[in-house]
Specification:
This protein has 20 helices and eleven strands. The chain is α/β, with parallel strands linked by helices.
Length: about 475
């Protein structure tokens, strides 16, 4: 007798694909797999699958034939053209009612386009962000699905089974129609960029500013991770600083080149924030610093001719450490605030209908930006679903204000030492701009009218006005 069809199909056996397949199979689901390179498929079956119910198709037709109908297929291939290629090649073997799910970090506009494309053939389409890296995919990721609600309900039991759990609740929920899932994942990654830059700046202040060793800095982050700063990224920072390079017998972080790469999701977040006119400066500057880190040869040349202040810290070290901890926490609050404000605006602009408390719940486990702070963020949106900005939440606003003096002192110390700390600096500037009843934009409006006759608005009368600023 032939075996019954598989519950789910996965296309793509890279690091994320392999681990997600094993996660599904360990939860009792039969999984069909396909990879463009047959050798990779055979190696996976020979070395990792064992007794699990994982079956391989060596052509897309064979792969489609392994699945129960209506079929459900997750694509875990690189964003961009590879996703379009998979859709084009698998479509001839699918039928109306089958479900395609893209989990490759696609740009949200591509998801909208593909949903229309396959919908015209009677297929269901979803974009589902997966966060947590290979460990998350294997043991429990945060899943951010959007698109076809009927498709989600069909596979919901599988997703809830494999997702990370916090207090017994799975870190997955339907987020909204269209590209809602991919958009939430994009903003998640933008917040991730911001956090990583903030932590890197505190590391630089500890290393070059205070002259501490990687081992000493590791101990500091370990202590911070046992406090309100508890988070995945602070925790792995401590682990990184404790790792030795076997070849050189010194901290591994010391021999890693200071050029940070990126795949584009942070940049996409900044682009769309600008299109929607939402300020996300901490995320923007994190993208900029990765770009600047890539100019290694220029920076080396500039270091020989451009001089700043001498790196001499003359203050109380323990007091500064306490201030730096508070500054990092304040920066994290602001970065979450910027990302969630963008999600609120995007939800209105694109018709996602996002529930931001649900978003915060999904981010509590499995994902890269999971942090203890998310419990307070959940509470903020539970109390006020229409909250415009986290800084307006009574609790989180007070938490930031209680630390603003320390953030100001850290920013000042960085400037005096000549150490770049732009994410900390713009986090403070964002707070100061957001709380300002009046900004100097009136002068900018006048300048625009002066050189381009763009008009301006007045505080004492409605309408658009123009002034002839010179007699020439």
């Amino acid at each position: 007798m032939s075996q019954p069809g598989c519950d789910l199909g996965v296309i793509g056996l890279g690091v994320m694909g392999r681990n997600f397949v094993l996660n599904l199979a360990d939860h009792g689901f039969a999984v069909a797999v396909y990879n463009r390179t047959a050798q990779k498929t055979r190696k996976f079956l020979d070395q990792e699958v064992g007794p699990r119910d994982i079956r391989a198709g060596y052509s897309l037709q064979e792969f489609a034939g392994l699945l129960k109908k209506p079929r459900a297929i997750i694509m875990l291939v690189a964003a961009g053209q590879p996703v379009d290629a998979v859709i084009r090649e698998v479509m001839p073997f699918l039928e109306a009612g089958d479900l395609l799910i893209d989990s490759g970090n696609s740009h949200f506009t591509d998801t909208n386009r593909r949903a229309k494309q396959v919908g015209g053939k009677g297929l269901l389409y979803m974009g589902m962000g997966i966060s947590g890296g290979q460990a998350g995919a294997r043991h429990g990721p945060s899943l951010m699905p959007g698109g076809s609600k009927a498709g989600y309900e069909r596979i919901r039991p599988m997703l809830e089974a494999v997702a990370a759990k916090v207090d017994g609740a799975p870190c997955v929920a339907y987020l909204g129609p269209g590209s809602a899932g991919d958009y939430v994942k994009m903003v998640h990654n933008g917040i991730e960029y911001g956090f990583m830059e903030l932590i890197a700046e505190t590391y630089d202040l500890l290393k070059r500013g205070l002259g501490l060793t990687p081992g000493e800095i590791k101990d500091i982050y370990q202590g911070w991770n046992r406090s309100e700063l508890n988070s995945f990224l602070v925790g792995i920072t401590a682990a990184i600083l404790g790792r030795q390079d076997e070849g050189r017998g010194q901290p591994l972080v010391e021999v890693i080149l200071d050029q940070a790469k990126q795949k584009g999701t942070g940049r996409w977040t900044s682009w769309d924030a600008m299109d929607l006119q939402v300020g996300t400066p901490t995320i923007d500057v994190a993208v900029m610093m990765r770009d600047l880190s890539g100019c290694k040869a220029e920076r080396l040349a500039a270091s020989q001719v451009l001089q700043g202040p001498r790196l001499v810290f003359g203050g109380d070290r323990e007091r500064f450490l306490a201030k730096l901890k508070n500054a990092l926490y304040a920066g994290m609050i602001v970065t979450y605030a910027q990302g969630l404000a963008l999600l609120r605006k995007a939800s209105e602009a694109y018709g996602y209908g996002l529930d931001l408390e649900t978003v915060a719940r999904l981010w509590r486990g499995g994902c890269i930006i999971r942090a203890a702070l998310l419990e307070d963020i959940r509470a903020a949106f539970r109390n006020r679903p229409d909250l415009a900005n986290l800084l307006l939440d009574p609790h989180l606003g007070q938490e930031f204000m209680a630390r603003q003096t320390d953030l100001r002192d850290v920013v000042g110390a960085a400037a005096e030492l000549g150490l770049p700390a732009p994410a900390l600096m713009v986090s403070l500037a964002y707070f100061d701009a957001y709380r300002s009843a009046r900004l100097p934009a009136n002068l900018i409006q006048a300048q625009r009218d002066f050189f381009g006759a763009h008009t301006y608005e007045r505080v004492d009368a409605p309408g658009a006005f123009h002034t002839t600023w010179t007699e020439d």
